[in-house]
């Protein structure tokens, strides 16, 4: 099969929720809800996020901050804040990039054929701002069989509010316990210093000099 034929076949794939097949469906000319100039994006984003999301760069494997993140929460678009993936759909693919078997909503993900790497792939983007996220492959786990391979730099992790409250409560309890231990140690040291002071013998008073009446007078 020629490369052109393979590309045409790849572009004709259809995403069926029940089958887990990939789709190269895209939305040509679709207006984005969030539109900014390149200068505005560069000002808003850090360097890594800017090059990944606006110029389709790829961060090095295992370099992203969210690769080993196992906290519960939501992964949103770093550019516009649209909710993209849930921690419940995240799995360890061993590839070095955050991987998910499904987005929160299929409608939040835009797809387009990508031939940049020399072989056909499916690029995934944020539907609201067009930010490049990564690619989707059909070698994922059940129930979808898909693997959304996403750059950490394109995501922002928002932890569950309940988990945040619990973490704050644990931090406060830890700080309170530390303060109590410090106060207890200070009181104990104070008691030791006080006891040491009580055990110190009082200095003896100096001997009083003899009075003039008792001192023999010298003869004139």
What does this 3D model show about the protein?
This protein is α+β, with helices and mostly antiparallel strands. The chain has 4 helices and 9 strands. The chain has helices spanning 3-11, 38-44, 47-55, 161-199, and strands spanning 73-77, 83-86, 90-91, 99-100, 109-114, 121-126, 132-137, 147-150, 155-159. The protein has a 6-stranded antiparallel sheet. Strands 2-1-9 form a 3-stranded antiparallel sheet. Strand 5 (109-114) and strand 6 form a beta hairpin. The longest helix is centred in the C-terminal third of the chain and has 39 residues, at 161-199. The chain is elongated.
Quick tags:
three-stranded antiparallel sheet, 220 residues, six-stranded antiparallel sheet, disordered N terminus, 4 helices, alpha+beta, 9 strands
Form type: elongated
Q: Gap between N and C termini, in Å? A: 144 Å
- Report the sheet-strand fraction: 15-25%
Question: What string, H for helix and E for strand, traces the elements in order?
Answer: HHHEEEEEEEEEH
What class would the helix/strand composition place it in? Answer: alpha+beta
**Largest sheet composition:** 6 strands, antiparallel
Give the overall average pLDDT. Answer: 82
Instruction: Show unreliable segments.
Output: 1-21, 23-28
């Amino acid at each position: 099969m020629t490369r052109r034929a393979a590309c045409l076949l790849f572009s004709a794939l259809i995403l069926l929720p029940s089958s887990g097949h990939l789709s190269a469906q895209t939305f040509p000319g679709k207006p984005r809800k969030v539109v900014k100039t390149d200068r505005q994006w560069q000002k808003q984003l850090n360097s890594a996020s800017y090059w990944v999301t606006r110029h389709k760069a790829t961060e090095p494997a295992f370099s992203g901050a969210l690769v080993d993140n196992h906290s519960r929460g939501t992964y949103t678009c770093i550019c516009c804040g649209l909710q993209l993936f849930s921690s419940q759909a995240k799995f360890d693919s061993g590839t070095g990039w955050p991987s998910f078997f499904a987005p929160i909503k299929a409608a939040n993900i835009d797809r387009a054929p990508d031939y940049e790497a020399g072989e056909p792939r499916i690029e995934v983007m944020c539907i609201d701002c067009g930010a490049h996220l990564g690619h989707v492959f059909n070698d994922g786990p059940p129930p979808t069989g898909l693997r959304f391979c996403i750059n950490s730099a394109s995501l922002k992790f928002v932890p569950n509010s309940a988990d945040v409250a619990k973490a704050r409560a644990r931090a406060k309890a830890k700080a309170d316990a530390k303060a109590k231990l410090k106060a207890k140690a200070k009181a104990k040291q104070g008691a030791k210093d006080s006891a040491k002071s009580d055990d110190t013998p009082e200095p003896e008073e100096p001997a009083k000099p003899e009075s003039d009446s008792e001192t023999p007078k010298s003869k004139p």
